[in-house]
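Table 4 source record.
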Amino acid sequence: MYICIVAETGKNIDLAAELLLKGSLVAIPTETVYGLAANALNEKAVLSIFEAKQRPFFDPLIIHVPTIESIEKYAQLTDLRLQKLAKAFWPGPLTLLLPKKESIPDLVTSG
């Protein structure tokens, strides 16, 4: 069962952060649709995304990070070309495929 708390878009960011830290799902607006967010370090929370969306387990998720510097907690960004792209286009619609660190459950990346 999922509990739905509705908030005005752009408001209650602290509540969203609290819910994510507790392992709950949060719906977030993107450029085109609403997405479901979970704490990528919490395998049970990540599993909730797959269950709620009936998403196949072979379909990996994206991890969003607030800054280039914060990547080092989740992945290895050693390629200088990718670093340049991130510096040029972030924040913005650029996705990088990077080797994950052990802290990221395999479920997130579909193994």
